[in-house]
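Batch job 17 of 40 flagged for manual review because the log was empty.
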Amino acid sequence: MKKTTLATLVGAAAFAAAGAANATIVVGGENGYEFSVDGNINQFFVQSDADVAGGGSNDNSRVRNGLLPTFFGFNVKAPEINGLTVGARVSISPSTNGGSYFNEGQNGSAMEQREAFATVDGAFGQVMLGKGLGLYGSHNILLDQTLYGVGAVVAGNSDNGQTTLGRIGYGYDYADWRSQMRWTSVDMAGFKVALAVMDADEVGTLAGGSAEKDPRYEADLSYATNFDGGMFKAWLSGMTQKIDGAGGDIKSNAWTLGANLGLGGFDFVAAYYDNKGVGDLGGLAFGSATDANGKERDGDGYYVQAGYTFAGVTAVKASYGESTLDLT
């Protein structure tokens, strides 16, 4: 199966870009503790037109969230004690989507919970415990310009999904929000290393479903530097896991390599990934990780992106990506 998409975006979704950079409210106390709130609300009109296997088409119009859900994050930071700084973050993601059929209006909006973690920073780097964005695939999605837009829709139908896909499964695997224990090193002349033990993916239900035979392991090596008039960033990330499924073990392995170059107002991104036993839609459809005989399916893909930001405010960008998953 091969999927391609071409997307362009002028500017950013309402509040989304500003929310990440400017819309954090910080409240500090005399005892050195800090409490802050951040978030974004985005809304799009989305028209989708998809061909249906066997003939016909599926046309749909929605007013809904894009790739980013609406979210509100709450952060606490403690004062430094004996060289250690403790923090915590919890966010909620209420949807603006109206739902479908009899769940329109006030009953149609679901609530997601993506982040709930604590951090400890010190001379050793940072330890993170809780639920947050995974390491493998995180650079790819955070640099994807469709993060502030819509991109692809689930199964070609804008009525599907709590959020849209952006470029998930159309150029990279999804990092997803995972329960984890993570260590990140201090900055070493631009280099950083991160290692994590995470909850593995699951397939099926309790009756004849899957067991997490081993945890999921993820690692990330990154390098970042600034120079006169620009910046450069590169990364190499990977993951491995083993699932005890109803039809036998499913072994998943994947890696991704990418780079981001900023030069003046220009910005360029290129990334490639290769996986085995991950499945369709960047791993969201993990049930498709194997074929009918239980053999892990191979996949790979890439995306490239280029753009220019006018006066440091308005960005015009274009991206192209492709994901391929072998049938058997």
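Reviewer: the log was empty due to a logging misconfiguration, but the result itself is present. Confidence is low (pLDDT under 50) at residues 1-21. Unflagging and moving on to job 18.
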